[in-house]
Design goal:
It is a single chain. The radius of gyration is 15 Å and the shape is globular. With 150 residues, it is an alpha+beta fold. It is 38% helix and 12% strand. The longest helix has 17 residues, at 121-137. Helix 2 (83-97) packs antiparallel against helix 3 (103-116) and helix 3 (103-116) packs antiparallel against helix 4 (121-137).
C-alpha cells in the first residue's frame, strides 16, 4: 500500500461514488469575476455512509470556491479531476445557508467526495482548507456564529 496517492485508499473503508459525470456550460456574456457554470444534467453522489446527494439540472456553481493564490498548489477551480466534489459542495453549502444541514456536514461530504475521486490526502486537506478560508474571507463564518439576523 502506497503512503501517497489513490492506492492508499483502504479496501476495508468504504468510499463514496459518483453515479454520473459532471456536464456543465458557462455563460460567456458575464464579466470574468461573475462567471458561473450551470449543470446540464443532475449530478448524483452517494457518500461513504450511504447518504445520497443530488445537485439538480440548471444548478449554478463556481467550481471550487478557492482564492486565486491557491490555484498554484491545488489547481484550477474547474479541474475535471475534482469538479464533481466542488459542485456537490456548492449545492450542500447552499442547503447549509438555508439551515437544512450543517456546514460541517457539507465539508465532510466534500472531503469524502474528493477521497472517492482518488485525490491524495494532502491535496484533499489543502482543498478543504482553501474553501474554508475563502468562506471565512467572504463572511460566511460571521453568519455562522451570529445567525441570519445579524
Amino acid at each position: 500500500m502506497s503512503f501517497f496517492g489513490a492506492s492508499c485508499l483502504s479496501p476495508h473503508r468504504p468510499t463514496g461514488r459518483f453515479l454520473c459525470e459532471v456536464r456543465i456550460k458557462m455563460d460567456p456574456r458575464l464579466p470574468r469575476r461573475e462567471r458561473k457554470w450551470t449543470l446540464l444534467a443532475g449530478l448524483r453522489y452517494v457518500d461513504s455512509a450511504g447518504n445520497k446527494h443530488y445537485a439538480p439540472c440548471d444548478f449554478e456553481t463556481d467550481g471550487l470556491s478557492i482564492p486565486r493564490f491557491w490555484w498554484r498548489i491545488i489547481g484550477h477551480p474547474l479541474d475535471a479531476a475534482y469538479l464533481g466534489a466542488g459542485v456537490i459542495h456548492d449545492f450542500l453549502w447552499r442547503r447549509a445557508l438555508a439551515g437544512e444541514i450543517t456546514f460541517g456536514y457539507a465539508n465532510w461530504v466534500f472531503r469524502d467526495a474528493l477521497r472517492a475521486l482518488g485525490i491524495w490526502w494532502w491535496r484533499r486537506t489543502a482543498m478543504w482548507g482553501a474553501v474554508t478560508f475563502n468562506a471565512w474571507r467572504l463572511g460566511v463564518i460571521h453568519w455562522f456564529w451570529h445567525g441570519r439576523g445579524a
